[in-house]
Amino acid sequence: MTPITGMDLTGFTEREPGVWTDEQGLVLSVHFFGIAPDLPAPFEQLDRLRYGLARFAVQVGGGLIEAVLGEMDTLPAVRQFIKIPRAGGHGLVFLGSWTVPRAGCSTVVKVQAAEGGITGVREAVTFSRTEPEQYSGPHPYGPDITGGLPYHVGDHEQWDAYFPDHPLTRVRTTLERITPTLTLHEEFKALPPFISASGLEAGPSGSGVRHWFRRRG
Questions:
Q1: For residue 208, what pLDDT is reported?
Q2: Exposure string (b/e) for 45-54, b if CB count within 10 Å is 16 or more?
Q3: Which of 37, 55, 135, 136 has its CA 20 to 30 A from that of 120?
């Protein structure tokens, strides 16, 4: 179903093809899109790429926490962490993903977890331990990015150790654990590289396939 041929599924149980869950409700899924990637900018223009991804997250009522470049099984990829309102309930859903674009298709690995029970503890504690003027402010990827969920330092990785059971922490640590184990089919790796509308090739010098963002699972 996808060009992903291997990954560490320790602790996960398959629920349906391409979707696994663990005992804490973490959802791991893999996706393939047989259309040209919808990236807002080439990897070589990281500032524009991050700005476009952050703007899109706001448009759907969420917030981009981080976007960075990296590799999946030697291919250039973009990693995102995003937060969105939980549908039909209180709290947030946190998503982490790797997207690997090629010329006419892409593959995505996504990990997500939702808040449950008491919410806002992480935000309250990190706010109390941070200077008020340093806790939140304009989005670092663009001062004119407004709306959606606010950007604040409580989502930074440095706080994960204080909140090991928080959904963002679990998403981040799980994605970090499985990333080195991800392998791709050789035919996918041999496909022509993604070339943006500007004519630049994506390379490891953070996709944005927007369609996966709307997909459940």
A1: 34
A2: bbebbbbbbb
A3: 55
Report how many domains make up the chain. 1
Rg (CA), the chain: 17
**Tokens encoding 180:** 């080195």
Nearest to 113 by CA among 162, 192, 175, 195: 175
pLDDT at residue 35 greater than cutoff 50: yes
217 is a domain residue = no
> Which pLDDT band holds residue 205 (cuts at 50, 70, 90)?
very low
Evaluate the CA torsion angle 69, 70, 75, 77 in order and state its sign: negative
Q: Model pTM?
A: 0.88
Amino acid 203 reads G
Give the model confidence (pLDDT) of 37-48 as tens digits: 888 888 989 999
Half-sphere exposure of 42 (CA within 13 A, CB side): 16
Give me the percent of the chain exceeding a pLDDT of 70.
90
> CA dihedral in degrees (127, 128, 131, 133; nearest 10)?
40
Residue 74 forms part of a structural domain: yes
> Domain range holding 11?
4-212
Per the DSSP assignment, residues forming a β-bridge with 31 are 108
Give the Cα separation of 212 and 192 in Å (integer).
Answer: 21
